[in-house]
Protein 1
Amino acid sequence: MSTSISIRPNSAEPPVRRASRAGDPRRADFEANKLRKRLRRQVGQAIGDFGLIEAGDRVMVCLSGGKDSYGLLDVLLSLQARAPLSFEIIAVNLDQKQPGFPADVLPRYLTERGVPFRIEEQDTYSVVKRVIPDGATMCSLCSRLRRGVLYRVATEIGATKIALGHHRDDILATFFLNLFFGGKLKTMPPKLVSDDGRHIVIRPLAYVRERDLARYADAMAFPIIPCNLCGSQENLQRKQVAAMLREWEKKYPGRAETIFNALGNVVTTHLLDRTLRDFTAIRPTGSPTPDGDLACDDDHDLSAPRSVVPLADIDAG
């Protein structure tokens, strides 16, 4: 294991790094800035809704080299320059020693951006390849090994929050993976305590669509590093669920947004979990009950969930 670290002063506002393309460059710049503003609003909304970042935080942004983590870092840097509260950002990359990994890409990018960073080198790739048979899914073991290293690094650098690049589509896919294959109503929360109980993990991209992150990565010309380990496996259940959601969205526009909003509008009294409610103690109250047995009605109102900010409102402009 080896570690390299670089601490540099942060830039006030990350520059637009628009990819060169055919057409009017001014129009391309306008669209890129419009998209950045939308992502900034969505991330700011998530931070406010779930209390993700507080004054004085040192936020460790886990940077893999993929579009999601690049987008996360870029938007947090932009918010840092504008936020009424002060917080630090340090980017951390785990170099897992995958063959052909371009180790120079991230340090060069982060140095150009003036972002404090640390590169942690640990050969988890060999461990995964040795333990997992050819053709089997590598994600679970790879993820556990990666988490352990990142938790240790977070302690060493004094991070108060660990920011991950999971987006809205990841949250939806995880919900269906748990539903279909795990028999649980569970997904990725925007904020939780880490497995070791010592850190707070946050997901500031919780309201952001993957397609917007892909567009933004293209507009900003991020130096994407493809994953040649678990990311290249085609038989993953997560990929199958993601394909299902994309197909639903084509046939029924808005369905994904409705499901996502439902995750923030849970009616626990109308589920079957006996740890949430003592069903044996239920007795008539003698007075009308607002929700009662409405779950049995075929024609009850299925409009937008209450107490949830519609994503359309966050996307405006």
Protein 2
Amino acid sequence: MSFAGNLNTVSLPDVFQLIFTSKMTGGLKITKDKDEKIIYFKGGMLVFATSNDSQDLFGTILVKKGRISREDLNKVIAGQQSGKKIGTLLVEKNLFTREEIIEGLKMQIEEIVYSLFGWKDGLFDFLQDKTPPPDSILSELNPMNIIMEGTRRIDEWEELKKVLPPDSTILELARDPAFKTDEIHLTKNEIILMALIGSGKKLSKIIEDSYLDRFITCKALANLLQQGLLIPAKEVVEEKTVEMEQKALAELLAQIYLGNLNYIFENIKEKLGGKGHKVISETFQINKNYYPNLDKNFIGDDGQIRFDFFLEMYKKLPEEARIWKIVSNFNSLLNDYLNAVNKSLGSKIYKRLLSEIRINIHNIINQNRQISVKYGLEEEFTRILRDR
């Protein structure tokens, strides 16, 4: 039996309960805006989950849970071979046992599902007999236990909201906290967060940097605030002006696009020699009319773009549409050249280039995560490259 609806009229616990009591098998797809999560069931039991949110990636969750450092994970990703999953590579490199990977996958399923309990609306569609992706390692979780924990988290979230300040608030450790007793009791999570906060940090940044999940992090922060160990800092003037931020954003976009375009050009020229210049030029000439913001005033006939011209173009664009125009034009241009690589050099080189570009973009974004998060760059590039 297939069915569909909206979470603003039918609650997630009710949907799960129907699937469990009816012992259904299939995939429950839930979407909101650009987010899509699919929960898979077999005989009413929850066995697998997928998500297009980068925060739900298996490696990201392992980092958030403190099971692996970001540095070690990046090394594994950098050496990732086409088709091999992160879990398999982690076992091959003796960083995890197979049993630990299975436990980690259960944890990933739970986190994906728990994140849905915060959605007040979203379209859902149960697709009968839809199965998980091939070679998926399946678990078996009782959805009723998940419902109980998810419902508890919702209730606690409402209480946490009463204690936590806005995300933009800078929190700092109290220099002279007033204690009612000589003894205080701190959890491991609270101690970890106190060390992370250091001399002061925005609430949003603390949540981003914490390897604990958002719920656990916020719960620990609320406890520290209530104990007086953590206090909101006095409002300070931002050191970076709007102009400086825009320049940093332009430089980040230039690194991503110009760097990767030049990398593609180098590979084409290296493999095809003199013919490579012709492939580059023809690709641009054929497609340039699709890019109204890439006119002849600042771009060569072969599609080569100079950094100073890029900045000039960036400044001329209306600020309210700047990001959209840059991203849409250059994503299309990047796609055109990747298609040219696939056509001229073959799928093997194309796949290698695509993998290296993904890693390159990830590394560039990590150089300025604050800007990236504010303008949603990571989500945009993850979506564009995932669709290829």
